[in-house]
Design brief:
mainly alpha, 2 domains, 17 helices
Length: 310
């Protein structure tokens, strides 16, 4: 995506009507390839030219997520709601980004309010909307938050989609809903279908079902069943290839969190700490609240006489 945009950037001069939108697309590609400073600059420039460019605004939100700056992220989004209010269901995704920032700050009541009133106000069956919802609820549960009955409608929808098989990104998020909603039989059926599709692997989609999809699906199922050592082995196997499922770094981070938490729950503290270090390196060298909390948990478990950090 970045190569394709940079190949045509020269054609979008300062006076070109689409320049702002192209800069917004460029900003996202810069962020996803780790150039956070340039991404923020390009996204800001995009909004100056085209104030309704939700993609450029969203790209800068990604920067603040990946660099552990939720306060700056909230300041960036606040007052710019008009840039995404007019959008189709992409607006739910931008609200999801805002919720992630509140979650990083520990403001879980605000996260749940955003979920109910904006992110999942419409119970659509679009896999992108379901991915927003399931990944946010899973993050909340990993942080010990009771999400009530919110899994139910997601599990109902996902249970009817287990045979879709068109996109592993969608399937893994359906699986999160089935795990959260305690639909063990439907979850097992979905995992078996992913494995079967992966074994055939006669297409690009099938290849991704096979790797990393099958190991990731088996790991998620094991996590839901409380078999954390099995979950960690499978999720670790999938981890190096998870970019193949699609989505952004921010979207795939729910699987990274589950892998790390599986490691901690399985007593694999050294492995979990190594993964935390790698995650922090990718995120501009800054620990977010998830990393700081898990690092403290892992180090305390390894050294039980140590006084925990505040």
């Amino acid at each position: 995506m970045r190569r394709s945009i940079e190949a045509v950037l020269h054609a979008y001069a300062e006076d070109h009507a689409a320049r702002g939108y192209v800069l917004g697309c460029h900003a996202f590609t810069l962020e996803e390839t780790g150039e956070y400073g340039r991404a923020a600059s390009a996204g800001s420039a995009a909004l100056e030219i085209s104030p309704d460019d939700a993609w450029g605004l969203h790209a800068v939100a990604h920067v603040y997520d990946m660099t552990g700056n939720p306060d700056k992220g909230l300041r960036w989004l606040s007052g710019r709601e008009a840039a995404w209010a007019h959008c189709n269901n992409f607006r739910f995704h931008v609200w999801w980004h805002k919720a992630l920032m509140h979650l990083d700050l520990g403001q879980t009541d605000t996260v749940l309010e955003l979920y109910d009133t904006l992110i999942r106000a419409e119970h659509t069956d679009d896999y992108r909307d379901i991915s927003n919802a399931t990944s946010l609820l899973m993050r909340l549960e990993l942080d010990g938050v009771d999400v009530g009955t919110r899994w139910e409608e997601l599990a109902d929808t996902s249970q009817s989609r287990t045979e879709d098989g068109s996109l592993i990104f969608a399937d893994l998020h359906y699986l999160l809903a089935l795990i959260g909603g305690r639909r063990e039989e439907a979850a097992a059926e979905l995992v078996a279908r992913i494995a079967a599709d992966g074994a055939r692997a006669g297409s690009d989609a099938g290849m991704r079902m096979g790797n990393p999809g099958t190991a990731a699906a088996r790991g998620l199922e094991a996590f839901g069943d409380g078999h954390y050592d099995v979950a960690f082995r499978n999720l670790s196997r999938a981890r190096r290839h998870m970019q193949l499922v699609g989505g952004s770094h921010a979207q795939r981070d729910v699987f990274e969190r589950l892998t790390i938490d599986a490691g901690i729950r399985a007593g694999r503290m050294d492995d979990a700490l190594t993964m935390l270090d790698e995650r922090t390196t990718r995120r501009a060298g800054r620990d977010d609240s998830f990393a700081a909390t898990r690092r403290n948990m892992a180090e305390l478990a390894a050294n039980p006489l140590r006084v925990p950090a505040e």
